Amino acid sequence: MALKQSAIPFAGTAEQEELLMAVIEKHKGEAGGLMPVLHEAQEIYGYLPIEVQNKIASELNIPLEKVYGVVSFYSQFSINPKGKYKVSVCLGTACYVKGAGNLYEKLKQKLGVEDGGITDDGKFSLEACRCIGACGLAPVLTVNDEVYGRLTEKDLDTILAKYKD
Amino acid sequence: MYRSQVLVCGGTGCTSSHSEKVIAALHREIEKHGLENEIKVIRTGCFGLCALGPIMIVYPEGSFYSMISEDHIAEIVEEHFVKGRVVTKYLYKETVTEDGIISLNDTNFYKKQHRVALRNCGVIDPENIEEYIARDGYQALCKAVNDMTSDDVINTIKESGLRGRGGGGFPTGVKWSLAKANDADQKYVACNADEGDPGAFMDRSVLEGDPHALIEAMAIAGYAIGATKGFVYVRAEYPIAVKRLDNAIKQARERGILGGKVFGSDFEFDMEIRLGAGAFVCGEETALMTSIEGNRGEPRPRPPFPAQKGLFGKPTVLSNVETYANIPQIILNGAEWFSSMGTEKSKGTKVFALGGNINNTGLVEVPMGTTLREVVDEIGGGIPKGKKFKAAQTGGPSGGCIPASLFDVEIDYDNLIAIGSMMGSGGLIVMDEDSCMVDIAKFFLEFTVDESCGKCTPCRIGTKRMLEILEKITSGKAELEDIDKLEKLCHYIKNNSLCGLGQTAPNPVLSTLRYFREEYIAHVVDKKCPAGVCKDLLQYSIDPEKCIGCSACSRVCPANAISGEIKKVFIIDQNTCIKCGACEAKCRFGAISKG
User: Fold this and answer.
1) Helical (H) or strand (E) element with B592
2) Chain A residue with minimal CA distance to B202?
3) What is the DSSP string of B151-178?
4) Which end of chain B is more exposed for a tag (fewer CB within 10 A), N or C?
5) Least Cα separation, residue B140 to chain A (angstroms)
6) ∠ CA(A128), CA(B357), CA(B121), 5° rounding?
7) Which structural domain, as residue segments, surrounds residue B459?
8) B contact test, residue of A26, A97, A156 with most B CBs within 10 A
9) pLDDT-based confidence at residue A1 (cuts at 50, 70, 90)
10) What is the value of pTM for the model shown?
């Protein structure tokens, strides 16, 4: 997977940094504490820009390359900001057999983005995701935390239209 | 005392089909009728019949409502709860027969099932420890620490014949005795809840529907091997499961079960949750432990095995959720009870996640040795739209495809291996005649290429080369010798990869080559995809007999590839056509076909 650093400048606030410091404090010295710190840091910032990784590295006293190595290894960690609405199409086997691959292609066309891309206005980001386990409703997609199941191509416009604001 | 209890499924499947709205509507309507003290609404775990969600069951009658929405609730509360008349039209239609309403357990979906690991899912409120205790919960742990020695516990598990449900099928009791035999100042019990196999979700259902069973089992394992600390490694994609397990751990601590001496014995145990971050390889045991340690989740060579040097270099027992879910029952009911179920070498039951082209998608638990036909046709309700069964895929990206000719195979560990597939964690995806087996093999290879951690060369580069050959085949550019090359590569990768991911990655290709070789040959020699899936080998054409010249197809074509005059036959320009299928979907006269 290619890791392209976003061109959007980092805009972390003082409050976010305070929260981050509290998280680091909580897990400092814990065996294997880096993963929980990264999870919680991503909750705070929405993604893990290099500035945040740097902070974590220096506070936990581990090399930045190790932090970056872990961040880049796991697909849940993102070094790029996500859209206001994060659209994820499940490409697990059950969904794939039921045509999720086509839905994903259609969504790419409709939003005009590539795999893992974000629309120019920052509103939608699109990605394929691993099985979310809602196989009974296949094919499914999620927009942020909302799950849409038993989809057909016709449903896509209706779903996107819900997120006009 | 309530006169009626309403159980609503709060598993991920039903939550995704909005069961939370149903629960809210129930509370609203019940309050409106002043029935709060008579009718109790309980949010449970998964019932298994996810295709029909949201699901709601009303006791004492046992009325099974399926596919309900919040709009139905006012009517159900008014008719059923106030007037006592079951609203038959919203019931699961299989429970409604000419002779009246039958019990859920007599429907095709449930009658052949035998629930051990899932016994509490859909039965109790997973957020309430009392309900677990009322179903004999924590009795097994109490019995183990007070009445049994650690060797008694290990021997019981050994004699039961329980094998790991995560894929490998290693005998659980043996694993425990190996970990016990290694002396160390600290040992660990770990649980693999990183259910990465696409299409399998039984572990999540246990976590969501019966989290205390896992806690109890891990504590028993801790007692058996002499470990005081447990880690559960859960996929971050399972937020409901994480929340319920976290809640259950807190409740167990409040009750003095975790975090101190267990049931007045000298044995202490506590546990914590660690979140995965979306790496399939972390389902492999050594990679999982590397990940818990806070590193890139890369596997390490074995030996040393986890029972010798596992988590943080200490002896560790690692099993998956479903395996653990069986443990308390085995301790309570005895090894013989468990080993009376199943086949000679595979004891007990197995949970399968039925998905794909099958009517009753969902979770089923059957004794080992049940045939594929029983699972697909009887329990699963067959293939929708009258299509033919083509293959069942088990074992996810590590498994293979079972063809129709082996429909009567008795499912157990050894039979599946013998026919080139594997049990895996229990995903069972059914495919009908419209599925292209080469495309399915390519789909899994795309998955493994993406998920290969990159540590060893056979897996990192080999799977990529395999995918390239498969892409050549599906785009019609391959020659016959490519199939041979592919097969050779498969064996090379199988024999030389470091961990289970690489060693099993060729299985989807090998099994489809074994049973569906003619489909590969059709792609290579005839340049055709018999199932009509591989786009590069498709041609859409208009049947001049059926076309009335309405121009609907040409207006919907995104590539302007269709031309013609109104009321005359239209033509598709094959060079411009992007094979999106929009024309075929639009044509009301069935004049457009692919082939």
Assistant:
1) strand B592-594
2) A133
3) HHHHHHHHHHT-B-TTSS--BHHHHHHH
4) N
5) 30
6) 80
7) 455-524
8) A97
9) very low
10) 0.92
Angle at B347 between CA B303 and CA B131, to 5 degrees: 100
For residue A132, list chain B residues with Cβ-Cβ distance below 8 A: 12, 237
> Regarding beta strands B400-403 and B540-542, do their DSSP bridges make them parallel or antiparallel, or are they unpaired?
unpaired
* Residue in B closest to A102 by C-alpha: B580
pLDDT in tens, B222-264: 999 999 999 999 998 898 999 999 999 999 999 999 999 999 8
Residue B523: C-alpha distances to residues A149, B235, B238 (Å): 33, 38, 39
What does the domain layout of chain A look like in residue ranges?
14-73, 85-161
Measured between CA atoms, the residue of chain B closest to residue A133 is: B201
Q: Are residues B62 and B176 in the same domain?
A: no
Q: Could you tell me if residue B533 is inside a domain?
A: no
Are A147 and B198 inside 8 Å of each other by CB?
Answer: no
CATH number of A85-161, picked from 2.40.50.180, 3.40.30.10, 3.20.20.60, 1.10.287.130: 3.40.30.10
Quick count: other Cβ atoms within 10 Å of Cβ A157?
10
Q: Which long-range contacts (CB under 8 A, 24 or more apart) does B444-447 make?
A: B444/A93, B444/B396, B444/B397, B444/B505, B444/B508, B444/B509, B445/B470, B445/B505, B445/B508, B445/B509, B447/B198, B447/B280, B447/B397
A132 touches chain B (CB under 8 A): yes
For residue B384, give the amino acid letter: P
Across the interface, whether the CB atoms of B356 and A94 are under 8 A apart is answered yes
Let me know: does B440 contact B512? Beta carbons within 8 Å: yes
Total beta-carbon pairs less than 8 A apart between chain A and chain B: 138
Q: How far apart are the CA of A70 and the nearest CA of chain B, in angstroms?
A: 5
Residue A93 in contact with partner chain B when CB distance is under 8 A: yes
**Number of domains observed in the structure of chain B:** 5
> Do B208 and B332 share a structural domain?
yes
Q: Do B277 and A92 touch (CB under 8 A)?
A: no
In one-letter notation, the amino acid at residue B433 is: E
The CATH code of the domain that includes B290 is 3.40.50.11540
Q: Are A73 and A34 in contact (CB under 8 A)?
A: no
Residue B445 lies in a domain: no
Q: Model confidence over B307-362: pLDDT tens digits?
A: 999 999 999 999 999 999 999 999 999 999 999 999 999 999 999 999 999 999 99
Closest chain A CA to residue B384: A98
* B81 and B60 housed in the same domain: yes
Task: Answer whether residue B438 is part of any domain.
Answer: no
Cross-chain residue pair A75–B237, CB shorter than 8 Å: no
DSSP A4: P
* Contact between B195 and A133 using a beta-carbon 8 Å cutoff: yes
In chain A, which residue's Cα lies nearest the Cα of B281?
A74
Reply yes or no on whether the pLDDT at A2 is more than 50.
no
**What's the complex ipTM?**
0.89
B443 vs A66, A75, A96: nearest CB? A96
Rounded to a whole number, what is the distance in angstroms from the first to the last CA of chain A? 31
Do B63 and B201 belong to one domain?
no
- The single residue listed with the structure tokens 């026919």 is B419
Taking CB atoms and an 8 Å cutoff, what residues of chain A touch B51? Answer: 136-137
pLDDT > 90? residue B63: yes
Inter-residue contact B275 to B146 (CB < 8 Å): no
Contact A92 B198 (CB under 8 A): yes
Question: Whole-angstrom Cα distance, residue B299 to residue B286?
Answer: 5
Q: Are residues B462 and B574 in the same domain?
A: no
Name every chain B residue with its beta carbon within 8 A of the beta carbon of A96.
198, 443
B354 and B334 in a common domain: no
Please indicate, yes or no, if residue B294 is contained in any of the structural domains.
yes
> Does residue A39 sit at the B interface (CB-CB below 8 Å)?
yes
Same domain, B304 and B192: yes
